[in-house]
Design brief:
Family: Belongs to the protein kinase superfamily. STE Ser/Thr protein kinase family. MAP kinase kinase subfamily.
Helix content: 40-55%
Strand order of the largest sheet: 1-2-3-5-4
Bound molecules: adenosine-5'-diphosphate
Keywords: ATP-binding, Kinase, Nucleotide-binding, Phosphoprotein, Serine/threonine-protein kinase, Transferase
Order of helices and strands: EEEHEEHEEHHHHHHHH
Strand content: 5-15%
Enzyme class: transferase
GO molecular function, one term: protein serine/threonine kinase activity
Structural class: alpha+beta
Number of strands: 7
Catalytic activity: L-tyrosyl-[protein] + ATP = O-phospho-L-tyrosyl-[protein] + ADP + H(+); L-seryl-[protein] + ATP = O-phospho-L-seryl-[protein] + ADP + H(+); L-threonyl-[protein] + ATP = O-phospho-L-threonyl-[protein] + ADP + H(+)
Distance between the termini: 55 Å
């Protein structure tokens, strides 16, 4: 089944991506609410067709830990990518001051399962693991999005954007060629994402570094970041430390990660993820309202 723009009713804007907006849309023939991501690229017809063909593999397999792909089409040189709508958005806007260990464990289980699925079923390395690319819904589901399925799309995006490099593993910074990108680099990015979710901020940020160079050199030469011992168990801290081994070949595989005492324990435990998501959304909305009010007050002062 092919989706096209005429069948879509545009609802609201969900966010702005690096290459265009993400919109909530209603697919009239099926009654499904979707998220439609616009990717603005100056590409010729051949390349656009290649991207659509490469995206087609996503129709073949589905996983509960991966945001479902509904279809893509292009208009002029823009690619429109339609996917499952996740009503609580991305984790980067929800973690607040940091997530409690049981929630962190359930998020980790979903991320590791999603990454393992991509690798085993689709032979894909994600290449962009970070909290922004983990979407959640109010039922408590946690799913990965924005993985590098289409080689042509990745290549075209890489050309138009240098991007934020900060989740890059040390070996990617020092070797700087795409060919050295292996599954182990995704495991490093997973570790950095978990530290960010636990601390409530990106570990190499917060004005600690005066330049991108200083930040990258801390990743390459410094000790890897750790979780605070007062709030996270030893099993949890060990898990993160294994992901953040500076030597890529020493990092565990996804199967080994799923087999760790930490994930084994939380796989069996019931955690009310829906309640956590709902609470986190309320706090996010309260923060947005407070900010709006502060801006309003400033405007009133000026007038
Ligand atoms: P980019 O990767 O180009 O920066 P994103 O994928 O991060 O763009 O999209 C921007 C924002 O749109 C996200 O932060 C998220 O809030 C929202 N968004 C993206 N995909 C979805 C989706 N499937 N469901 C709901 N919201 C989404």
């Amino acid at each position: 089944y092919k989706i096209n723009m005429n069948e879509l009713m545009l609802l609201e804007e969900l966010g702005k991506g690096q290459y265009g907006v993400v919109q909530k849309v209603h697919h009239v023939p099926t009654g499904v609410t979707m998220a439609m991501k616009e990717i603005r690229l100056e590409l010729d017809q051949t390349k656009l067709n290649q991207i659509l063909m490469e995206l087609d593999v996503l129709h073949k397999s589905q996983s509960p830990c991966i945001v479902e792909f509904y279809g893509a089409f292009f208009i002029e040189s823009c690619v429109y990518y339609c996917m499952e709508y996740m009503d609580a958005g991305s984790l980067d806007k929800l973690y607040g001051d940091g997530v409690p260990e049981p929630v962190l464990a359930k998020i980790t289980l979903a991320m590791v399962r999603g990454l393992k699925f991509l690798k085993d079923e689709l032979a894909i390395i994600h290449r962009d693991v970070k909290p922004t690319n983990v979407l959640v819904d109010t039922k408590g589901s946690v799913k990965l999005c924005d993985f590098g399925v289409s080689g042509q799309l990745e290549q075209s995006l890489a050309k138009t954007n240098i991007g934020c490099q900060s989740y890059m593993a040390p070996e990617r910074i020092t070797t700087a060629t795409a060919s050295t990108y292996t599954v182990q680099s995704d495991i490093w990015s997973l570790g950095i994402s978990l530290v960010e979710l636990a601390l409530g901020h990106y570990p190499y940020g917060g004005g600690k570094f005066d330049s991108v160079f200083a930040q990258l050199s801390a990743i390459v030469n410094g000790a890897p970041p750790e979780l605070p011992s007062d709030r996270y168990s030893q099993d949890c801290r060990d898990f993160v430390a294994k992901c953040l081994n500076k030597a890529p070949t020493e990092r565990p595989t996804y199967a080994q990660l799923l087999d760790t005492p930490w994930l084994q324990k939380y796989d069996k435990e019931e955690v009310d993820m829906a309640a956590w998501v709902t609470g986190a959304l309320e706090k996010k909305n309260a923060r947005a309202a407070a900010q709006h009010e502060a801006e309003q007050a400033t405007t009133d002062q000026i007038h």
